[in-house]
Design a protein that fits this description.
Helices cover 37% and strands 18% of the residues. The protein is an alpha/beta fold and 193 residues long. The protein folds into 2 domains: 5-122, 3-Layer(aba) Sandwich (Rossmann fold); 124-188, no CATH class. The chain has a 5-stranded parallel β-sheet with strand order 3-2-1-4-5, with helices on one face. Strands 6-7 form a two-stranded antiparallel sheet.
Length: 193
């Protein structure tokens, strides 16, 4: 089952959204604009138009403390109601969203806050995926898979089951290339010390 990743951008907080990363991915982006965003740069508008089928703009039309945050939270709730199996990402440096993320997770929803697009697993390139998985394997030695099949499954799980078989294999080869893992012909995995 392919899972849709919903990315909500707090545009008051993060303007350097790398929209090129979403092309041809199972992703829908909602950019929440604050009261002061009456005009957008032409380069940004061109990117938004090119990816119009994947991006939605929401103008809060309100000013005040946390006005944008509350509008963003309401839209996550509405989308979650329509797709409870989606993966919800908030792109913001505002740690105030962590309470919302915690609430979503407590209710069985996949959710996470990221400071930038490059931190969202489903949007990572092969090098970024290998680096992320390598860090995870090194910091969690008790949860490391012992065979190749389980490692492939863990890679898929980490990326919301959104990677193609080729992307999963490319990531696995990258882990071997980086000497994070060694794979035996019997399917056993060993890890670098």
């Amino acid at each position: 089952m392919s899972r849709t990743n919903y990315i909500f951008v707090d545009f008051e907080n993060v303007q350097e959204a790398d929209f090129d990363r979403i092309a041809d991915r199972p992703v829908k982006v909602t950019v929440v604009l604050g009261e002061q965003h009456k005009r957008l740069p032409v380069d940004l508008v061109k990117k938004l138009l090119r990816l119009a089928g994947q991006i939605e703009l929401i103008e809060t039309g309100r000013a005040g403390k946390n006005a944008l945050d509350l509008v963003l939270a309401q839209h996550i709730g509405a989308v979650r109601k329509g797709d409870p199996h989606g993966y919800f990402h908030i792109v913001s440096k505002d740690k105030g969203f962590d309470a919302l993320i915690g609430h979503l997770k407590d209710n069985g929803t996949l959710a996470r806050r990221h400071a930038s697009f490059s931190e969202i697993p489903v949007l990572m390139n092969a090098t970024e995926r290998v680096s992320l998985i390598s860090r995870q394997l090194k910091t969690n030695p008790e949860n490391r898979p012992k065979n190749t099949k389980t490692l492939r499954s863990q890679i898929q799980t980490m990326f919301g089951r959104s990677l193609s078989e080729a992307e999963t294999e490319d990531t696995l080869r990258g882990l071997v290339r980086e000497k994070t893992v060694a794979l035996s012909s019997e399917g056993k995995v060993t890890y670098a010390p």
